[in-house]
Amino acid sequence: MWQRFSSRFRARTWASTRANRQPRAEAPRGFSRFRHILAACVATRIVVDTTVQLFYSFLPIIALGMALDVVVLGRLMSLRSAVGLSAPLFGSAADRYGYLRVMRLALVLAAAGTFLLGSGAGFWSVAAGMVLSGVGLTGFLPTVQAYISAQLPFAQRARGFGILEYSWALAGIFGLSLMGLLFDRFSWQLPFIVLGVAILAGWALLGFLPKVPRGADPSLAGAGAKNGPEQVGVAGEEGSTEVGLGKGVTPSLTLHLSRLVSGAARHIAGLFDLGPNRLSAYMIIGANSLFLFSQGHVLIAHGVWLQTEYGLTATTLGLVALLQGAADLAGAVLVSLIADRVGKKRSFQAGILGSALVYLSLPAVNIGLLPVVAALLLMRFTFEYGLVSAVALVSEQAPDRRGKVLSLAVAINLVGMTLTGFTGPWMYTRFGVWGLGPVSAICTLAAFMLLTVWGRESAKTAGVRS
């Protein structure tokens, strides 16, 4: 009898344990279920980031192939950055229609622009290629960040973004090194063709990824709720004006147009509405924009600097890019290991201060190739650590409209990057390295002030419900 009772007890215990374990088995298990997603996103980002970085490392070589002055090509790069102001439209569309759909559309535009850049058809072809690739690249980057962050809790967000940002480093290690060989051994056009094909391969790869729930943007929902009844009311008013009153359609047409204009104005205003935590969000975005300007101001001219003063060729520039990619990778790995524990804001502050010190040292180290390359590597390490921390920090400033805030951050960042196309090459040709380092240091310290005074770790720490 005791054996029968004990066997029943064990059976019930085993059944209840199995029932309790079943939901746990179906629950998310850390990063295990994101491995294939992250792998696909990192692979696609490597190609995209190689395309973004291509001009920074090989600006004089590409300018020679396109028969353009480096200053002119730098300004055309500013055009590519300027069209990135369309990023909030991509973010709003991603929140409404889905991240994957917008990511793949952006890749098609980026591929078309890259093929145009490599066509060698003249100035206007380069300008059109810059516009198309700029729209596509800046539409893809924040959307893939929103896609990843929508699936990761904030406590693991820095780790996820750190892994995603390995792509920037790997682009320097493998992508730019390969591009340098292609430039040296074949032609200046072949790298653009290779990158265009690779972007389309990324488009196909993303088609196999699972969809995630779209962002819930209250401003979009409110606009939609208002537009519907208003449009019905206008139609009714038009009918009564034409039939009941026997008057012309001018009053109702004017009313209809005014409501269309007001609806468009509300939609545009909604693109910039970041919710109750907007002060912290905009200050962090502003700090990140200054941080990116500081890096871009040096980065856009460093290829000309190395080639002019130290005689580096395309292959050796590719080798320097490989070393810089390794420094980027070290910074991204460090973020993925410690930033969640240290805090995203503190990590961003550390990256800013480290970068400022390097910028101040650039004129002093310009006494030989080795100290210059060492400073550039340290610059990339501190910048990457700060940048990835900043992206993770921005992602939780407005959790209910994540696609919008990340894409708006990219757009505002690109305002700073747009200016670097004018400032970097021009300042170097006029003042040498003294026109690069000190300017970047001042802007970086301004970014530190904005972040420290007004930035918050997240919407929750600011007392805002997400």
Largest sheet: none
- List SSEs in N-to-C order: HHHHHHHHHHHHHHHHH
- Which range does the strand content fall in? under 5%
The rough form would be described as globular
Which structural class do you get from the secondary structure elements?
Answer: mainly alpha
Q: What is the C-alpha radius of gyration, as a whole number of Å? A: 26 Å
Mean pLDDT: 76
Task: Please provide a written account of the structure.
This protein has 466 residues and is an all-alpha fold. 81% of the residues lie in helices and 0% in strands. It is globular and about 50 Å long. The N and C termini lie far apart (58 Å).
Record the SSE blueprint.
Blueprint: H1 2-26, H2 35-65, H3 70-82, H4 87-97, H5 99-117, H6 123-149, H7 157-164, H8 166-185, H9 190-206, H10 218-244, H11 250-271, H12 278-310, H13 314-342, H14 344-365, H15 369-394, H16 402-431, H17 437-454
Question: Keywords, please?
Answer:
mainly alpha
Quick structural overview:
The protein has helices at residues 2-26, 35-65, 70-82, 87-97, 99-117, 123-149, 157-164, 166-185, 190-206, 218-244, 250-271, 278-310, 314-342, 344-365, 369-394, 402-431, 437-454. With 466 residues, it is mainly alpha-helical.
